[in-house]
């Protein structure tokens, strides 16, 4: 009878020959330059790991938990079946008798339905697997295939998902916890049910000791070890979501749908320490600004019951819809008055806010506060920990920001933060936000002027300018300096350091707007986004932060145009290299501007960071090799700082997505410069001082302590310009060039191309 069943069923069993070359669906994984995982894309978290590289402790834990006699039986463990049967008959805790081979048969090929037919097929398939594959092959498939909860398939993925560490570093206690998951990955999951997971872990440790895999001392130590689960909201983890998403788009454009199943590993230029510093700096800059804003009120109000158990459930429900945002945490107010707020967080911790911690929300604690602003019992609020380890009330910011850092010597992206929070706003402001650069654009006008005979010592009049309606053909235009004052004749060096608008306009008048429009193309700017009118002198065109970083890199590297790049290596799941990018070596085919032009511009930008609007940069970083320019647009809609040290060019930007005033006293120097400085304190720490202006290139001379082109040295160049005449701006120019909408469909290809070059 059994023989007949075998003869009939065997030909209908699935073909298992492909299991000899086991290839499950593997996700796209994105790494920093050091190999730190920064992103994973695919339905299944999975990391195919050869059995030879799986640590013994993990294999022992699985064998102890699931099938201690795996290497001794032929697929069915008759002793185990007998033991399980006796235990089940005696109503002892129900025991299963599925061997590892049976589980592979079931998980890879069969459904989970509990029918006699399926069970027969499972047994037959088990014999077939044992006949065609080695024990190690079967075990390798199991260790990589089994579902372990939290979207993790296989123990390597589970180690990353639960503990945030590679499998090779796993401890006995952690291995036992993971080995306890296959029986019930939902119920035994340490995230969902820590108590049950702990009980299962202790059982596995005991089984490991019984099987002789570990000693009694090791078992006792493992039971005492405190496990720290990976927390997705952990503020200390590396935040590089915008980078990972950019890589995902690049890979999808290249590989299509197979991107998410073929196990591609993409290594980027990102430096983990730099990325962490950029994230922390941008968040701090935005939250510092937020402290100065009017309190907009709690995010929600809920009715809180008095019964403690019902209260816990109400708090859980409320905060599930308002999760923590990194270090900006959510809480529900239990009690509030003008002197104190008591609140509870999602983890059950209660906190008290008093004194200075209440200051940002004073308007919400006033007796006269309107109902939507009033902080009261049941209000969902935001809190942050202060440096003094006290609590402060805050609010999620409406303002946005961006930060990008490149190595100007080859274009490698070292850090990129596309916004305050990726989950809150996936729009990447580094590559997609077209904004007015304001005064941070002036250096490119000055660079053009050097080729027309201007020198750092050229005197230009900082005096009022007025263009009437008859001249413009539209509305009258009367540009102002930021502080509203005029200082009269001054050198170009001082004018750039003090960011004098009138001087920039007069310089542009002199050299011609068409010439300047052509010149800025050398830096990678798009001519059509910078109309050839005088407001271009004040940065009225449109740029992205990535463009600005690329453009400032030209000054930093001696005049070469380098394209930013992000991907260094792509491998398959077996680490075979598919694509490898070599950093470009600077050569004359990449020259964008003359070396002497870059040299003198560096001298001017160094002055800005020493004595001008960015003097805080050199003063704080305490090194002279710091160069850059602040930028604040009309009505303070955008705040910039773009600058560099010879090994690092970086740009910080802040503004609202729907442009509106940041505030009358808010500037690039006050908002974006501190972000840039905070980043540089980490990024160039220990980097030797390298003064670009230490050795003058050919064609440059120093006369009286000032640098000149040798053919425009004193007596030969333009000596004095108090120019009033020049090209007339159009009506469009008077209001400034449009900022530009969110990226059009064609922008997607431009963004992808940005990183391909």
TrEMBL record:
InterPro entries to which the protein is assigned, alphabetical: Beta-lactam/transpept-like, Glyco_trans_51, Glycosyltr_51/Transpeptidase, Lysozyme-like_dom_sf, PBP_transglycosylase, PCB_OB, PCN-bd_Tpept
Catalytic activity: [GlcNAc-(1->4)-Mur2Ac(oyl-L-Ala-gamma-D-Glu-L-Lys-D-Ala-D-Ala)](n)-di-trans,octa-cis-undecaprenyl diphosphate + beta-D-GlcNAc-(1->4)-Mur2Ac(oyl-L-Ala-gamma-D-Glu-L-Lys-D-Ala-D-Ala)-di-trans,octa-cis-undecaprenyl diphosphate = [GlcNAc-(1->4)-Mur2Ac(oyl-L-Ala-gamma-D-Glu-L-Lys-D-Ala-D-Ala)](n+1)-di-trans,octa-cis-undecaprenyl diphosphate + di-trans,octa-cis-undecaprenyl diphosphate + H(+); Preferential cleavage: (Ac)2-L-Lys-D-Ala-|-D-Ala. Also transpeptidation of peptidyl-alanyl moieties that are N-acyl substituents of D-alanine
Domain Glycosyl transferase family: start-end pairs: 37-209
The keyword Lipoprotein is assigned to this record: no
Domain Penicillin-binding protein transpeptidase: residue ranges: 401-649
Main location (coarse class): membrane
Gene Ontology molecular function, alphabetical: glycosyltransferase activity; hydrolase activity
Bilayer topology: Single-pass type II membrane protein
UniProt keyword terms in alphabetical order: Antibiotic resistance, Carboxypeptidase, Cell inner membrane, Cell membrane, Cell shape, Cell wall biogenesis/degradation, Glycosyltransferase, Hydrolase, Membrane, Multifunctional enzyme, Peptidoglycan synthesis, Protease, Signal-anchor, Transferase, Transmembrane, Transmembrane helix
One Pfam family of this chain: Transgly
EC numbers, comma separated: 2.4.99.28, 3.4.16.4
Localization (cell): Cell inner membrane
Taxonomic superkingdom: Bacteria
Penicillin-binding protein OB-like domain mapped to chain residues: 295-399
Listed pathway(s): Cell wall biogenesis; peptidoglycan biosynthesis
Gene3D superfamilies referenced in this protein's UniProt entry, alphabetically: Biosynthetic peptidoglycan transglycosylase-like, DD-peptidase/beta-lactamase superfamily
Family: In the N-terminal section; belongs to the glycosyltransferase 51 family. In the C-terminal section; belongs to the transpeptidase family.
UniProt protein name: Penicillin-binding protein 1A
Protein's organism: Variovorax soli
């Amino acid at each position: 009878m059994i023989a007949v069943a075998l003869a009939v069923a065997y030909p209908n069993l699935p073909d298992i020959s492909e299991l000899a070359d086991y290839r499950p669906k593997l996700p796209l994984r994105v790494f920093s330059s050091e190999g730190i995982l920064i992103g994973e894309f695919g339905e299944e978290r999975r990391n195919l790991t050869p059995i030879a590289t799986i640590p013994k402790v993990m294999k022992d834990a699985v064998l102890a938990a699931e099938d201690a006699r795996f290497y001794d039986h032929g697929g069915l463990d008759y002793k185990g079946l007998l033991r399980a049967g006796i235990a089940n008959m005696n109503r002892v805790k129900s025991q299963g008798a599925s061997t590892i081979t049976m589980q592979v048969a079931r998980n890879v090929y069969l459904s989970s339905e509990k029918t006699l037919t399926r069970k027969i097929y499972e047994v037959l398939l088990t014999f077939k697997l044992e006949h065609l594959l080695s024990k190690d092959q079967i075990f390798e498939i199991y260790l990589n295939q089994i579902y372990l909860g939290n979207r993790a398939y296989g123990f390597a993925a589970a180690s990353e998902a639960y503990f945030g560490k590679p499998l090779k570093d796993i401890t006995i206690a952690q291995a036992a916890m993971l080995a306890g998951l296959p029986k019930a990955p939902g119920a035994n999951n340490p995230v969902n049910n820590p108590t049950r997971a702990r009980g299962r872990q202790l059982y596995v440790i005991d089984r490991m000791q019984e099987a002789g895999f570990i000693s009694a001392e090791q078992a006792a130590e493992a039971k005492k070890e405190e496990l720290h689960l990976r927390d997705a909201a952990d503020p200390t983890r590396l935040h590089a979501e915008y980078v990972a998403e950019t890589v995902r788009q690049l890979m999808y454009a290249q590989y299509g749908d197979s991107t998410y199943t073929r196990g591609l590993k993409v290594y980027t230029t990102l430096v983990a320490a730099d990325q962490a510093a950029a994230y922390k700096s941008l968040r701090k800059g935005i939250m510092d600004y937020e402290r100065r804003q009017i309190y907009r009120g709690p995010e929600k109000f809920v009715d809180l019951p008095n019964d403690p158990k019902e209260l816990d459930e109400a708090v859980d429900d409320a905060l599930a819809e308002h999760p923590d945002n990194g270090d900006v945490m959510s809480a529900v107010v239990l009690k509030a008055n003008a002197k104190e707020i008591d609140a509870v967080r999602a983890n059950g911790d209660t906190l008290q806010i008093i004194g200075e911690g209440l200051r940002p929300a004073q308007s919400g604690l006033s007796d006269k506060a309107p109902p939507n602003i009033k902080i009261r019992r049941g209000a969902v609020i935001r809190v942050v920990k202060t440096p003094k380890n006290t609590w402060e009330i805050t609010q999620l910011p409406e303002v946005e920001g961006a930060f990008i850092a490149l190595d100007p010597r080859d274009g490698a992206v070292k850090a990129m933060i596309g916004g305050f929070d990726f989950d809150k706003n996936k729009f990447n402001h580094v590559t997609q936000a077209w904004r007015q650069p304001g005064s941070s654009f002036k250096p490119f006008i000055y660079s053009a002027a050097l080729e027309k005979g201007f020198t750092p010592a050229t005197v230009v009049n900082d005096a009022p300018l007025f263009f009437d309606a008859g001249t413009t053909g539209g509305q009258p235009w009367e540009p102002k300096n930021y502080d509203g004052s005029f200082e009269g004749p001054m050198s170009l060096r001082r004018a750039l350091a003090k960011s004098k608008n009138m001087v920039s306009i007069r310089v542009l008048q002199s050299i011609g707007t068409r010439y300047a429009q052509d010149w800025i193309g050398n830096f990678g700017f798009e001519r059509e986004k910078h109309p050839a009118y005088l407001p271009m002198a004040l940065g009225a065109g449109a740029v992205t932060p990535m463009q600005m970083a690329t453009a400032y890199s030209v000054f930093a590297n001696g005049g070469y145009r380098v394209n930013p790049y992000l991907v260094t290596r792509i491998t398959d799941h077996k680490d075979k290299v598919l694509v490898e990018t070599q950093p470009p070596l600077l050569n004359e085919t990449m020259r964008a501007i003359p070396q002497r032009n870059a040299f003198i511009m560096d001298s001017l930008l160094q002055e800005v960071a020493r004595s001008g609007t960015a003097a805080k940069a050199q003063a704080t970083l305490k090194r002279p090799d710091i160069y850059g320019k602040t930028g604040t647009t009309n009505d303070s809609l955008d705040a910039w700082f773009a600058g560099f040290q010879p090994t690092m060019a970086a740009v910080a930007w802040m503004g609202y997505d729907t442009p509106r005033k940041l505030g009358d006293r808010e500037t690039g120097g006050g908002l974006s410069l501190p972000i840039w400085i905070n980043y540089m304190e980490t990024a160039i720490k220990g980097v030797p001082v390298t003064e670009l202006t230490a050795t003058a290139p050919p064609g440059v001379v120093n006369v009286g302590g000032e640098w000149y082109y040798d053919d425009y040295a004193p007596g030969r160049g333009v000596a004095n310009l108090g120019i009033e005449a020049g090209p007339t701006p159009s009506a469009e120019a008077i209001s400034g060039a449009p900022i530009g909408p969110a990226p059009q469909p064609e922008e997607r290809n431009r963004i992808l191309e940005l990183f391909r070059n």
